[in-house]
């Protein structure tokens, strides 16, 4: 199940220079809104979204945090956008996590 470039003798997991035949990609994401988020039981919530790129060491660590929508946890609207430049898309994963500003 491994991509072909991983079988090449010059492949080194920590170095992007050994990615023979792998084309980097750019991904544009727009976080628009959410609907019917569950309340935490503490009254109103102030949600925000973390988007994080996980994968190879040289791709991992890029993170976007949307603005916080104060006291509108049921149907928040963010309209935030971000761009990710991914060197090795074969190993990349985008993680979306909706959180509440209030602990």
Quick overview:
It contains no helices and five strands.
Structure explained in plain terms:
GO terms for molecular function: phosphatidylinositol-4,5-bisphosphate phospholipase C activity. Residues 1-103 form the C2 domain. This is C2 domain-containing protein. Pfam families: C2. The protein has a single domain, classed as Immunoglobulin-like. A hairpin with an 8-residue loop joins strand 2 and strand 3. It has strands spanning 25-33, 47-54, 63-65, 77-86, 93-100. It starts with 24 loop residues before the first strand and ends with a strand. It is an all-beta fold and 103 residues long. 0% of the residues lie in helices and 37% in strands. The chain is elongated, with a radius of gyration of 18 Å.
Itemize the secondary structure elements and their pairings.
Elements (H helix, E strand, L loop, with lengths): L24 E9 L13 E8 L8 E3 L11 E10 L6 E8 L3
Antiparallel strand pairs: 1-4, 2-3, 2-5
Number of strands: 5
The number of distinct helices, counting runs of at least 4 residues, comes to 0
What is the terminal separation in angstroms? 41 Å
Structural class: mainly beta
- Corresponding CATH superfamily: C2 domain
pLDDT averaged residue by residue: 88
Shape: elongated
Q: State the oligomer.
A: single chain
By CATH reckoning, the class would read Mainly Beta
Q: Kindly give the count of domains.
A: 1
Order of helices and strands: EEEEE
Beta-strand proportion: 35-45%
Write out the strand line-up for the largest beta sheet, numbering strands in chain order. 3-2-5
How is the CATH topology named? Answer: Immunoglobulin-like
The CATH level-2 architecture is identified as Sandwich
Radius of gyration: 18 Å
Give a quick account of the main beta sheet: strands, pairing sense, barrel closure.
3 strands, antiparallel
Helix fraction bin: under 10%
Q: Which regions contain 5 or more consecutive residues with pLDDT less than 50?
A: none
